[in-house]
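Input set for joint prediction.
Command: fold jointly, output tokens.
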Amino acid sequence: MRQGRAWRRGIASCVGRGEAIAEAIASPLRRAHHPVADLRHHLGLLVRLVGAQVRSQLQYRVSFTMDFVSSFLMFGFEFGALAALFVRFETLGGWTLGEVAFMGGLTAVSFKTMDMLFSGFDPPAFGEHVRKGTFDAILLRPAPLTLQVLGSRFVLMRVGAIAEGVAVFALALWLVDVHWTAAKLAFLPLVVIGQLAFFAALFVIGSTVTFWTVDSIEAMNILTYGGHELNQYPAHIYPLGLRRFFTYVVPTLFLAYYPTLYLLDKPDPTGMPSWVRFVGPVIGLGAFAGAMAIWHIGIRHYRSTGT
Amino acid sequence: MLLYAIARQSFRRHLTYRAAAAAGLLTNFFFGIVRVAVLTALYDGRPEAAGITLPAAITFTALSQAVIGPLAAFSWFDVMRSVHSGEIAGDLLRPMGYLTYWLAHDFGRALTQFLLRGVPMLIGYVLLFPWIAPAGTHFVWPQGGAMWAATGVCAVLAWLISFGWRFLSNLSAFWSPDARGIIRFVFSLSWFASGFLFPLRYFPDWLQRLCALTPFAYTVNAITEVYLGLQQGGDVVRLLAIQAAWAAALLAAGALVLRAGVRRLVILGG
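tokens >
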């Protein structure tokens, strides 16, 4: 009986929300165009779309809690295993546990936040839309495409992994005596934003590629998840070929390793000029701009699968 | 005979996804290389640590990546899905036990994964060894026929244990619609305690002892120990015996929990 009522209420509120979203999408058609008003409208729309996702995922509270705990622990165990090795080996490529945790925490926070914000652009999930033809429905709606893709999926569960990244970073701050300066404090958020933008760019490019082929997703995984893995350890331990590829072809290493050298005042065994420590955020945002350009080219050449 | 037929069907079905296997292989190999770099840096010129030489440690990374497929080390929700979707109703009507059915099915899957991902991974490591390991060192193989045989037996028992805990954790689907979170938690625990991330020998003693209390330690870590010859003679026999005991215990527990689950199962028609 109670369940039945709750169910009916759920349906009613779903219908209500659906109408609200449809209303929000359609409203600019009735409004005169004005850049600031448009931007506000679009942001409002994104908040509504994401809000709907968040609400629906929070409906199953036990499920959410379990997922939160398990994704927190999953990365916790991985870091714990590495930490346990430091008892025996003491350093990794001349870095202490705290220093490795500093970079690992920074990378985890950036990557997992990106993974949550850009869930809609996660290539396997986006590729499904293209393959099934549901992407066509998005094209028909009178709202910016990119915004709709962003709002189409929001994996709230990732906050567990983000929390784990924050915990590892906090542990690092406790273990390492960082010589903070105003410049470093200002640079730190830029490092996070740069890395977030860089991996978001890889997600967007990976999604764009699915307009042409869905077979290449695994190969993209090496760049995204592989890149995330690489940015957890000091880069000078990698073989030269690997390092060169992720420096000059896919410049992943500029996003975490070199900025960390600056933040922790570490020497650079790779012998790069000292200014490369600061280019990370620029590369990240540049890659993101480039990815958006590729994305728009992809949309223009999109041919529906017809399903 | 029926078991053989199911295993063969499962083998064929998984063999269809060769392209996916090749791509997965490449990803596993990449992560293997990163692990080699991390271990080499940790060794930092030491000839050996915790009784494991550097070439043996590098061989371990090959083994750990090679078992991902056969032991389904990342995820396995098949039984959970069959319970949640109601497909289990059809499975229960089969002229054989539900557990036996999945055991045969998983054997076929593990065998394909071993051939498509395990063996090529080892071959890839052997071919690329001169580039990824210090000069003058070699890929490590089990020493002598007896150790090869022991490694084979150990690997089969490891698969049985792995199936045992995967099946058992999937059965939580009978009680909870949130089984995915529970299963995922068990998997993340297994990464740590099975010696999949790093051989357990590297850990501090108390942590090794803690891990040895779980069945996970008798999967990847047992294979590492026997393959690399870290255990010899009677110790190997003892290890295999413990493995067999864990496998039997987990399968028995699986059968018991399954019976309790099926009793409370309600299938809705439609």
